[in-house]
Design a protein that fits this description.
mainly alpha, 269 residues, 3 domains, two-stranded antiparallel sheet, globular
């Protein structure tokens, strides 16, 4: 009787573990019960899940409409950049037993995540669009560009975020929401997991395009030309900086666009 009881307890614990753990994306085919083929961000979500960059949950769902946290985006950036150096953990809100702590310490060392003046990192905080844009620019080594942006809501963009948003807009990574008379970036608005993947997806494409242009000698002649670093293991002219499925400039992109004309208010970056 005791053995039978132990087996039941083990079975229950295993079931709970499966439900609460992220779903590995290493399987041959990845799909999520809450991401239909008609969902506006289905293509980038499914693509990056298949590459093992983003993950769903043990319930078979991705929860695309959930708000994005700093820890979640840090995990995505770490998956593609493979940071290896860690900062010493002197932050009271980064417990050693949390899954995100070693990841965020690497992003701090890389200069991507900047702790607050009070020493807090707030890893589980739901971040805004503007905060996510800053993290993206820093991760992809896109230098900030001074001056006002062309967005209609430029006045509402936090001063410390504006140079990074301006830089991302310059390279077509941030387009914004199309409204009458132009575009709004809505930097102070929180974003969903799906919206984050859309921006990350465009950033990856822009990264590959720019790197190809630099290697081919066709990059824009500009003192501030973005010279993104090679991925770990990459070399000049090599393919170490490529991501699976990327097609060089001129060969077509499987989904998405870097042009404002393709952006709508329901699916935007």
């Amino acid at each position: 009787m005791k053995l039978r009881h132990v087996k039941k307890v083990v079975a229950v614990l295993l079931m709970i573990s499966v439900l609460l753990s992220p779903l590995s994306a290493s399987s041959a085919s990845v799909s999520f019960a809450d991401v239909s083929t008609s969902y506006w961000a289905a293509s980038p979500i499914n693509y990056w899940a298949q590459q093992g960059v983003i993950f769903g949950y043990g319930d078979g769902k991705f929860h695309p409409e959930d708000q994005l946290t700093l820890a979640q985006y840090s995990s995505i950036l770490n998956q593609v950049w493979k940071y290896s150096v860690s900062a010493p953990n002197v932050y009271p809100d980064l417990p050693a037993d949390k899954w995100y702590t070693p990841i965020i310490l690497k992003l701090i060392a890389a200069g991507v995540v900047t702790p607050a003046a009070n020493g807090l990192v707030q890893p589980e905080k739901q971040i805004t669009r503007g905060e996510m844009f800053v993290l993206t620019a820093k991760a992809y080594k896109i230098a900030p560009r001074a001056g006002a942006t062309t967005f209609l809501d430029d006045a509402s963009i936090p001063a410390d975020q504006k140079p990074y948003i301006n830089a991302l807009a310059y390279y077509g990574i941030v387009v914004g929401y199309q409204v009458t008379g132009g575009y709004e970036v809505r930097a102070t608005q929180q974003l969903t997991r799906a919206e984050n993947i859309q921006v990350f997806d465009v950033a990856e494409k822009a990264y590959q395009e720019q790197k190809d242009k630099i290697l081919a000698g066709t990059a824009v002649s500009d003192p501030a030309t973005w010279a993104p670093p090679l991925r770990p293991g990459g070399s000049a002219g090599g393919s170490g900086f490529k991501v699976p499925g990327y097609t060089p400039s001129g060969s077509g992109i499987s989904y998405g666009s870097l042009t404002p004309s393709a952006v709508t208010s329901s699916a935007t970056n």
